[in-house]
Amino acid sequence: MADELLVASRLVVSYERPSTGLFSKRDVGPPVLRGVNFRITKGETVGIVGESGSGKTTFGRALLGLVKPVVGSVVFDGQDITALDERARRPLCRRIQMIFQDPMSSLNPRHTIGRVLIEPVLLHGLAKSHDEALVLVHNVLDRVGLSRRTVDRYSYELSGGQRQRVGIARAVVLRPDFVLADEIVSGLDVSTQAQVLQLLKELTCEMHLALAFISHDLSVIRSICQRVIVMREGRVVEEGPCERVFAAPRAAYTRMLIDAIPLPTVDPGWLTREVPAAAERVSQIPSEPAMHDVRLIRESLEKVVRVLDAAGKKTQTKAVQSVIELLAGHDTESIPTFLSALQKQLEREPERKAAPPKDLRTETIEQHVRQLRAAGTDRAAFDTVFARISKDKAVRKAEADAIAQAYGGGRARWPKKQDAIAAIRTHFDGQAHGEVKMRQVRKASL
Q: Which residues lie below 8 Å from residue 327, measured CB to CB, with a gap of 6+?
């Protein structure tokens, strides 16, 4: 077909076993993939499902060229990419991207999110300057639902759902044609799963992406994919449109997977349904509330309790807890009376003053530390920030001590301001040296 973007034919993949002796040859193990065929068109979403050990991830790695097949071919946009070396494959890296299962292990903890996203944009020539690339990254962050301030943060400062959104942003910022998503929602809670899946559906429609989605969860596959491939022991046992495969599976193995789903019948609108606010639910409680309405209201109020408790609002926290106790006893008639008494009590309490803003000294220290971390191992950027700190009259010995400790750790005080400034450069030199060594190791391993 003219619209076919990626076609894999009769793929066979085997891994080499370690040699048993010094001069013995390595043996080739049993095949992991056994003659797998695959095709995907532009704008199509194809699901790849199967139990653990069925060869799903190996199949995805073979499509991306991370694993070379023993037999078979992979054709991308009319070009056979099976035997391409690293240099010949490099121009295709922008058009073929992957979203990893564990974003924490795929993001460099020593680099800010901004650097992780900006460097590929500059490397592939999608922007001529750092500022132009930053604008492009800001637009992508807006699209995936992250704040623009995320560019100054590190991966360990984000939640699991936020890190997965960064992984999606890193893949789509290069405007690829084909994206492989490998078990990207398996480690997320249900609500975050729905948000990430809805985001993927919107991006595939907007950017006309071809998406191969690997998952164990057939409910997820059915909700976002047009076509599904069922794998077992390195073979494709069934393939077809999702509606047909779920309604009338031809293979017994597919029927077994469907029967293992806790809720086989999936509501088509579960990704886009909005949960009403707790206040709206309270106003709609009938005289004899249903059990599930009471449970949902209690869950919402328990979340409010955690937020108020974290903010130190003890009176409001006790009030909400009292409402929860009334709901537990299904005594909904007493709630309006209790809330009216609570309102009068809060009106008598003096209003607390807002916390004072950060002083200039704290803002100066945090600004310099943030700029140092953003420079990473870029010596030119570091020298610019280092010179600014050295000339800043607001940075006295105490401020220099705080900056040096926050940036590089170690001792909290130095004998002189110059010693603290020198410690900042020493820490950067150590980082840069480690980065050079890491590149040498990677180059030697290729």
A: 294, 297, 298, 301, 335
Q: What is the pTM of this model?
A: 0.57
**SS3 label, residue 431:** helix
Cα–Cα dist 245/227, whole Å: 9
- H or E stretch covering 339: helix 335-348
How far is Cα 210 from Cα 171, in angstroms, rounded to an integer?
12
Is the sign of the CA dihedral 222, 189, 171, 33 positive or negative?
A: negative
**Burial of residue 273 (number of CB atoms within 10 Å: 0-12, 13-18, 19+):** exposed
What is the end-to-end Cα distance of the chain in Å, rounded? 36
What pLDDT does 3 receive?
77
Give 27: exposed, middle or buried? Use CB within 10 Å, 0-12, 13-18, 19+.
Answer: exposed
Q: What is the mean pLDDT of residues 348-375?
A: 65
Q: Is the alpha carbon torsion for 298, 303, 309, 314 positive or negative? A: negative
| 268 three-class SS | coil
d(CA 405, CA 403): 6
Extents of the domains making up the chain: 4-95+176-259, 278-348, 360-445
Q: In the block, which residue shows the tokens 């001590």?
A: 401
Counting Cα atoms < 13 Å in the Cβ hemisphere of 241 gives 3
Residue range 193-212, pLDDT digits in tens:
888 888 888 888 888 889 99
Tell me the pairing of strands 96-99 and 79-80: unpaired
Q: Up-side HSE of residue 164: CA atoms within 13 Å toward CB?
A: 22
Quickly list H helices, 98-241.
103-106, 113-123, 130-143, 160-172, 190-207, 218-224
Q: Report the 10 Å Cβ neighbour count for 261.
A: 14
Token pair for residue 444?
């030697």
Give the CATH number of domain 4-95+176-259: 3.40.50.300
